[in-house]
Amino acid sequence: MSRPQPASQHTVRRHNSALVLDAITTHPGSSRAAVSARTGLTKATVSSLVDRMIAAGLVVEGEAQARSGPGRRGTALHPSPDGPHGLGVEIGVDYVATCLVDLTGRVRHRTLRASDNRTSSPARVLTKVATAIRNTLKRDVPIGGVGVAVPGLVETATGTLRVAPNLGWEEVDIRDELRARVALEVPVQVGNEANLAALAELWHGHGTQDFVHVSGEIGIGAGIVVAGALFDGVRGFGGEIGHLQVDPNGPPCTCGSRGCLERLAGQDEILKSAGCPTFDDLLKALRAGDPSATTAVSEAAKWLATALSGAVNLLDLPTVVLGGTYARLAPWLTTTLETTLRERVLGARWSPTTVLTSTLGAEAAVRGAATTAVRAILADPDPYITAAQS
């Protein structure tokens, strides 16, 4: 067994850099003295680290702070809105989206382009994605990392997309494929779109720390958050609620099973049952009180509650957050969903499940992907600072 070794100067600096930047981002406007008090580091150490961050574009100085007593007035420190951005990409079944998020968490730019990716090979779709990335890079802002959201099983350890049933993809190394098409010299992270949507809700949404975020598009995905952290399973394959069997006698699914939730409550099935060619047509029919449209959404809500009740009973989650197209259907979906959850959740008599509508809607996954890239920099800024100085 090897003996523990003392931390190197670089390791200590790396740790302290993260402490200082966290203090600045969680308490913007703090002075160097306040950061020193908050982190326990000496004022000299904080000043040295802050100077490096300012030079790298991570931190900016603001106005001088008021001081009642003698001595030099401190200056307010803020994460720089012109510093490294996170570039988020979402590969949807029928679209490709991009998003730029700065260090303050603000969305600076977003795009959405329709694309029927079910009929295209991974190579062809990733070429489109590479074009979208290059177009976003033309905005001439520093990029600190790229996050990619995909609708399938993504292995946490490798970032490999193992399978995406609704795309018909298997064993695709998204990271290497994109690097082969775009000259990316920054970290690239790949994640499941439902998990990234749940993280976006955690960071930018209602503020709840324990919930299941369910997003309904052509496929249905769920991201589970417990005690303010994503729970995605041992290998990262958790949250595939769309492929829970809710009707053993139901229609066959692209995953190889039958009666899966997304085959009964997914967007395509709702449109078909409602007799509406597009989602906008469905919304118009619902607003007009069309009985076919209303019934289609109500039936989808019952199937959705059947699957969600299993997750709530198993994990004792207090809250369901509706995202994606379910967020847009919430006015016609929520009542039936809540009623059925009360019937099926064992603990509902004492603690009814709260149903919320995501404020992020369809942009949650791509925003989560971009923010994940930003938060990676905030959690470990020293590599970015070192690269910026080279």
TrEMBL record:
Q: Which UniProt keywords apply?
A: Kinase, Transferase
Signal peptide segment: none
In this chain, the stretch annotated as Disordered covers 64-84
Pfam families (UniProt xref): MarR_2, ROK
Recorded family membership:
Belongs to the ROK (NagC/XylR) family.
Record-annotated HTH marR-type domain positions: 18-64
Keyword Kinase part of the UniProt annotation: yes
The cross-references to InterPro entries, in alphabetical order and at most eight, read: ATPase_NBD, HTH_MarR-typ, ROK, WH-like_DNA-bd_sf, WH_DNA-bd_sf
Q: What is this protein called?
A: Putative NBD/HSP70 family sugar kinase
Which molecular function term from Gene Ontology is one that the record holds?
A: kinase activity
